[in-house]
Amino acid sequence: MAISDHVDLDQFMDGVKRRNPGETEFQQAVYEVAVDIFDYIADKEIYHEAQILRRIAEPDRVVSFRVCWEDDNHNVRVQRGYRVQNNNAIGPYKGGLRFHKSVNQSILKFLAFEQTFKNSLTGLPMGGAKGGSDFNPKGKSDSEIMRFCQSFMTELYRHVGEDTDVPAGDIGVGAREIGYMFGQYKRITNRYVGVLTGKGIEWGGSLVRKEATGYGVVYFLEDMLRHAGEGLEGKVMTVSGSGNVAVHAAEKALQLGARVVTLSDSEGFIHDPDGFTREKLEWVKRHKGHRRGRISAYAEEFKGASFHEGERPWRVPCDLACPCATQNEVHADDARLLAKNGLKAMAEGANMPATNDAVKVLREAGVLFGPAKAANAGGVAVSGLEMAQNSTRIAMREDELQSLLRDIMQGIHGRCLEHAQGPDGYVDYAKGANIAGFKKVADAMLAFGIV
Ligand code: NDP
Description:
Layout: H1 9-19, H2 24-40, H3 45-49, H4 52-56, E1 61-70, E2 76-87, E3 93-99, H5 105-121, E4 128-133, H6 142-156, E5 165-168, H7 175-189, H8 209-227, E6 236-240, H9 244-255, E7 259-260, E8 262-265, E9 268-271, H10 278-288, H11 297-301, E10 306-309, E11 320-323, H12 332-340, E12 345-347, H13 356-364, E13 368-370, H14 372-375, H15 378-392, H16 398-418, H17 429-448
Parallel strand pairs: 3-4, 3-5, 6-7, 6-11, 11-12, 12-13
Antiparallel strand pairs: 1-2, 2-4, 8-9, 9-10
Helix pairs in contact: 1-2, 2-5, 2-17, 5-17, 6-7, 8-9, 8-15, 8-16, 9-10, 12-13, 15-16, 16-17
The structure holds NADPH dihydro-nicotinamide-adenine-dinucleotide phosphate.
């Protein structure tokens, strides 16, 4: 009899907690997947025998390293850098780099674990990884950012490569940081290869990458609504965050006829009951992008809008919600209020923005819920296309990429649906995404034997 015959979900989670003490985000992410997978593999002995879930929940490798740099006042600063390579059963490791003061091993392990299923769902050959540093880019000069990025890559370069592990951007890492890191990689190795994605268009980047995550989230929302016999037209939508994912989600929702009424940052949210227009969103992009301003300034710039300090947007009544800022920003109380106010669907733009308790509330209230690993996979999908363009040294046209992104999101929606049957006819996308993402990785791992 296999050892795992004796292990139920609680025992499995006890083991995860024992092996990863204090890593609450990682434990939360594993639990959220394990709940559905335990059910799915109950009668599939082959996955039990090979201990597949236990193996996916143990990263292939966690690298952590010292990053020293000098600030503008010649003080020596020391940060910690990481790369978590979770699983490469179906392709080279792939996942973003996050520079934020909250970064720690638990957060990066959760993100790398999630990325494994997300990348699998895209249908493209990519494994799962994540990395970053507790470096806080806020208030740093351009030279300080450059020196930090160069020092970070001076260690990272030995762990990555175009067929090994291809990092990208995430919170705090945009085109500027990718540029400094790519420049340093090229300088150290003397090789011009697609080792990073999210590059500038002139030096190997892909069109549509910038928009892909936010646009993809709204496509997924559109597909969920369409499957339920509804559409985006005329719906009121709340969005949190005001970074790359948030502004592009708002932009696509606006194009498809929704009225988007909120955005936020770490200081609070803005409410514009009239809804954003293209011009207003362009202002936000300029203000938050190059000028790195605060979202509160929006309320001073545009009449009728208000700023709510220290709050998140979830008390604003809406039909649709897209949390696009960070993990654990929608709690059970928020979910209850959203459901009470008539929420029809939520699609996660950020990674794990809704807590497990919040997701439970939404499921019980019959609200359609698009989990991050499905809904925000458009970004990594176009990164996969950037890798393909780099390997072939051919750049795709914008219309080709836009249409591929739309197809990929539709494919993800379809893959989720195959396993999404919930109680009373509820379409359980979270369960569907977990099972569909798991199956491809698990079957590849079975083919490789015990490694
Ligand atoms: P950005 O750095 O461009 O923007 C992040 C936004 O979230 C900012 O508005 C920021 O506010 C806000 N934010 C960050 N931390 C917090 C916090 N602790 N509390 C409240 N607000 C916060 O990042 P992205 O838009 O790229 O990423 C947003 C989310 O989407 C992340 O979860 C990321 O992992 C996920 N994601 C991103 C992808 C991409 O292609 N970029 C792909 C898939 C997922 P402030 O300006 O005040 O810091």
